[in-house]
Amino acid sequence: MASIDGLPPLREVIRAHGLSAKKQLGQNFLLDLNLTAKIARLAGDLAGSDVLEVGPGPGGLTRGLLAEGARRVLAIEKDARCLPALAEVAAAWPGRLEVLNADALDVDVAARLTPPIRIVANLPYNVGTELLTRWLSSDWPPFWESLTLMFQKEVAERIVAKPGSKAYGRLALLAQWRTDPKIVLTLPPEAFTPPPSIHSAVVHFTRLEAPRHPADPKVLARVTAMAFNQRRKMLRSSLKGLVPDIETVLREAGIEPTQRAEEIPLEGFCALARRLAG
To answer: Is 34 annotated as a binding residue?
Structure first.
């Protein structure tokens, strides 16, 4: 990578700028430029696309995205200590990197990017799930074409989980309703500095132009929240507050009232949401 952008290895960058990962910011730096380049490639063909990156840190993945041909990268970094290192990346790629010192939860990113847009990020662990939920819950189709995101491996497994597994829940339903998510890379703790206590995984989400099954988003969200908040209860008990005769509505949706939330596939929850909305 240094031969491509003329910048030093990330360990030198961190040492030169006195950067140390902060636990309270959910930081774990990925310093292997071969790995960051691989993640950038897993996002697909970036040529002609704007890319949003959240939590670039010292800029390893940022460098990979630019080297892989991203038209422009908008990098949102909350930690001001990282700005000088990112400024060096911006100087090596004139006009192609914009860095915002901000909290990604507070930024209207769609207004700052030009379609087609891809989101690629080694998400800070403390905001990763919240950001994903926001991106999946926006108006559909969303402003982005695809997501390529790193999570704790446990979170990644929840995203791709199937009915009948302990990991299956609301996150799996939301992700699989509107996208095709796949785990494309798993990384051990020692790939990071400092090493986290868990493995990590990269998930690539390809958006669907329309949700996989028709359903009102608000009704579906309410139904799945009630069902999985008491996931060990039968649905006739966990959903009894929705309508007076919930057992009849469940049967009309093709669901047995004695079934539990973790047994019901996405299509079943969507059918139930349609019955309730109707």
So the answer is: no
Q: How confident is the model at residue 133 (pLDDT cuts 50, 70, 90)?
A: very high
Q: Is the pLDDT of residue 258 over 70?
A: yes
59 among annotated binding-site residues: no
Distances (CA, A) of 200 to 37, 179, 188, 211, 276: 16, 21, 6, 28, 38
What is the torsional sign of CA 225, 226, 227, 228? positive
Task: Kindly state the tokens that stand for 158.
Answer: 């929840």
Domains recognised in the chain with CATH numbers: 2-207 (3.40.50.150), 217-277 (1.10.8.100)
Helices (H), 97-193: 128-137, 153-160, 170-178
| Residue 242 marked ligand-binding | no
Q: pLDDT tens digit string along 38-90? A: 999 999 999 999 999 999 999 999 999 999 999 999 999 999 999 999 999 99
The alpha helices in the chain, defined as continuous H runs, are: 2-5, 10-17, 33-42, 60-67, 83-92, 128-137, 153-160, 170-178, 217-229, 235-238, 246-252, 266-277
Asked if 66 and 45 count as a contact pair (C-beta separation under 8 A), the reply is no
CA atoms of 259 and 236, how far apart (whole Å):
8
d(CA 193, CA 48): 32
28 in a labelled binding site: yes
Residue 60 annotated as binding site:
no
Question: Does 77 count as an annotated binding residue?
Answer: yes
What value does the mean pLDDT of the chain take?
A: 93
